[in-house]
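Ticket #4471: structure output looks truncated?

Reporter: J.K.
Steps to reproduce: submitted the chain below (336 residues) through the standard prediction queue, then opened the result file.
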Amino acid sequence: MEDYMHVYGLLDTSIRTCNQGDYIIVESVKRELAKCLDNSFVLELPTHAPIMRPGEFGFRPEGNSDYCALKQMDCAFLCGTNLITHDITSKWNQWNIQENDLSVLGGKVISVGVGSAPGFSSFSRRALKLYSAVFSKSFIHSARDERTKLLLESCGLRALNTGCATMWMLTKEHCDAIPCNKASVAVATLTDYKRDPDHDTQLLNLLLELYEKVYLWIQGIGDFAYVNDLGFADKIELISPNLNAYNSFLNHVDCDYVGTRLHAGIKAMQKTKRSIILGVDNRSFDISRTYGINYVPRDDIDALKRKITGKFETSIGINESAVTEFLSQFEGMSVV
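Returned output as attached by the reporter:
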């Protein structure tokens, strides 16, 4: 046993989230980093709020034990999703990083399957300076997609396109166990913040036509109200809005996944379910440019029907060598 106890931060997107998909991401990050995290002291920290708000630890923070614990962190793992953005000016940033946070996070953050917001290819002056200061230059970073990899490299960092950490277990051997033929039951999702009543109505009607039974998992805080507004709440079975309920459903029901929520679809593939992900934002599109997720634009209902009724294999094409290279950096980084 080492004489030194490692202390790691886990920048957790599921703290104060309105999206259960963040729990899927954090669950996967913890699984992939288990050899490192399970035998070390882990401080779970929010991404949706600054860590060092003014006055957080008083006028003399060096005398505060919580502040001293944060200063003791060897590094902090940043857990996936659309965290990188062009500018850091809004309180609605997914990763609410501020200059004050550099006192405990400066040079310590390691990206784990992190992605970026849509619609930009370079950083503002402030964002470039802050990201360059907060990310570690001692480790290679893991990016969710090629665009994010290039953005991280523009900060002077080394990065690999590993895909999202939720996808790392989707090896060829795992994907070979996913059925090619249509199931008799479907589980769907909708996206409350990307509403398209016409196409979402077409989607649910198509599923009711093609499957004997249709379930819907409530992943976002506004999904139930949206399904109710569409008039389908009494036509389909609802799965409770928590990851335990969704995991239990997937463990016990032979089904296809068809929906607009990327991580609900990836979770279904983790559970060896045939999955079709409907594109509504940049996440599924960016990932589909590199990896073989079964992706159909939401507005192409004819293509979706052909996909559902047809036979297809699942082949994600994870770059296992990149994942191994990233994870190998943390071998031996534990207290025992």
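Triage note (M.O.): checked the attachment and the full token line is present. The chain is about 35% helix and 15% strand.
Status: closed, working as intended.
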